[in-house]
Amino acid sequence: MPPESQPTPLSPPEPTRPLSSFAIDVPETLLARARAGEGSAFEQIYRWFERPVFTLAMRIAGDREEATEVLQETMLKVLTRIGDFRGHRDGSGTPFWGWLRQIAVNEALMRLRSQRRHEHSVEAQDEHLADDRSPPPPAAADAAALGRALAQLPPATRSVLWLYHAEGYTHEEIAALMERTPSFSKSQLARGGRRLRQLLEPDMQRNALEQAHA
Question: Which residue ranges have biased composition labelled Pro residues (predicted)?
């Protein structure tokens, strides 16, 4: 009798990638109006993406003034380059929000590089450091607490955490964006994630006490 076939071992499931706050479905009719130079169409696009761009810039730059400048420069570039966006029509399959987000990320990281802040990032002494894929702790649901904790991290570390956990970029994509290696991204994520949880611990304990006495 033929030997019984062995079941194929199952691969571990891929970690669920977060849904970006940029993931807004922009109608093609609105894009066409914006390409034609209709001011009200671009104003609507601006309103839809103002908060996602500003939040991304704040998490990377850590400064409201810098974030405001990133927002302004990003939307100016979107306005002047929107005629270049072809998306699904050129076969790339890139949604408009992904195209706009890439402009915002590039602008924020360009400013970060120009200020030479990367030298103050958490040092990646162990190139084989385990990849910490775990999400931030529950206290991260408190946007104010998360903002305070992220502001205490080095800019490059903060950028990796936000791009990976909030925007769903892979380590390879982050490495390309930041002109570093995937090992750098992985080590920043692991070390930065641990530090972020330490910073959020007091908020978690305070929330637990408040719930216990509620």
Answer: 1-16
